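=== Structure Prediction Worksheet ===
Name of assembly: unnamed complex
Input type: mixed (protein and possibly other molecules)
Chain count: two
Listed entries:
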Amino acid sequence: MQGPTEQGREGILERVSRYLAWLAGGAILFCAVLVTLDVFGRNLFNDNFFESFEITIYLYAVTVAFSFSFALTTKTHIRIDVVYARFPKPARAVLDVVAMALLTGISLILCYYAWSLTAESYGLPGPGNLGAVSPSDLSVPLVIPQSVWSLGLTWFAAVCTIYLLRGLYMLLRGDIDGVSHLIGIEQREGEAELQEALHIMQDGETK
Amino acid sequence: MAAVALVVLLVLAALGIYVAAVLGILAVFLGETFSFIPLVPVLGDVAWSASTEFVLVAVPLFILMGELLLRTGIAADMFRALDRWVNWLPGGLMHTNIASSALFAATSGSSVATAATIGTVAIPNIEQRKYSPPLFLGSLAAGGTLGILIPPSINMIIYAVLTESSVTDLYLAAMIPGIMLAAMFSLAIFGACVIKPSLSGTHERATWAERIGGLPHLLPPIILFLVVVGSIYAGWATPTEAASLGVVASLGFGIYRRRINRSVLLLAFEGTMRTTAMVTLVVVIAFFLNFVLQSIGVTQFVSDFMESLDINPTWAMLAIIAFYLILGMFMETLSLMIATTPIVVPVILALGFDQIWFGVLFMILVEAALITPPIGVNLFVVQAVRGSGPFRDVVIGSLPFLLMMIAMMLLLLAFPGLALWLPEVFN
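=== Predicted Assembly ===
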């Protein structure tokens, strides 16, 4: 069995993004177990023991925010290459940097307004001194999940910015292959998923 | 002005700009240009409510379920067991392709995973049993697309969230068309092989003992289907809860088969979060775009405009279908779906169509987009699994199934009850 892909050769950003994705996936599995217990609790004893609904939506927001960067470092965020693929390599590298710049812009806007929402929740009146709370039995101060979520989006914006700067630096130095390796489209949609699926099937055949 | 903006953005998308960024720029631009109050500051609110939408949590859960299933080897066992039941039909194994795709589709939310998994087990048989490659490959590419029509479907969850429809209603509505489409695929194979027997390969008829002996291998997918879809229909669980049950059940199968270890789990987590992050980013931005379009009145304008045109709804729907078939040749399907939903759904509502009904039709259009060249993901997947031979084979072989999809859409147009009957019965 091949271990998680390409681990040895990746840089710190890529590695941290991968570890975060592991944590996030684990959290999603945890949600599945919690929700399952609640489904049984509700149908058998008429009670939701674990408040899984609220915990799950916060974990979803947080885990996904922290996983955006993993989709970037593994080139999973969708780009369409119908016209792109017809351009010569240097032009594609320029397009890659432009694409990265626009994505970075969106990631920064998202990050900024996420923090501003968090500050707003903190400023609202609530029962404790942590601002607005969720309208539920748990009464979670919203500032807690929202600040962790904003932190995730900040990590995404940071990785985007560093990728943009790296890409720009490579482009200015004329390192076209470097740009395409870092932020080019290169792999087709479904390819990574496919390679893995094939690997698993071959693995299954030999066992 | 708005038209110019739209053209510029289509060009940006075609040039390989991240789809999420393109939608974001469109939203910011429209908000800044056409709104009296600043809309961009609401982004935080919109993004937070989209990110904490319980229905959307079903997306990572179903992906995780598919990831775990893929690694438990139940797909390959299921294929061999089903083969013994259907291989005597003219067309032999190709029916197995369709039947196992349909069954696997009923447990996995992804058509790429369906096509890759079934394809890997099936393709070696082309040479071994002398099948004509095009039709065989086509049956794999097209069979794989059933994954997004037969519940549970991730695409349907996203459609439901974007249009504020009920996922349960959509799943109920897609049930009959999904089974019908699978049957029509088989009919196409049957017809082709009766007319031209050389398309079919050799097949040994299985004994009844072999058939019965294989049945236990069909149990896991059937149990999963009952757990996931049955619990929704029985009213015990919401779709997101059903997805959780499915994750726990597949983990159970994996542990029972001793296929779950640290590295398998980590790979499944990686795959899950990669796809989930990709999907969610586009959905969150699309939510914001949706909000902007509604705030500046584009949504209202579009539906008023459609009503003022006073055109025949059927012709308009045929035009929409044609538009999607053409767009689907070039566009990646998820972006196609998310980017066009906010505009097209008000149009079809103004024309007097039902949004649940359209959701089902839309899924078939997305399926068609997956097998139409030059950009058809399932064509690529099947070709990649095959490894050699002309790509043309897969494209030509998919054509009869594309015709069946178009026939299914026309049937839905003529008999909306095919989709709407089950939701009515259950509500």
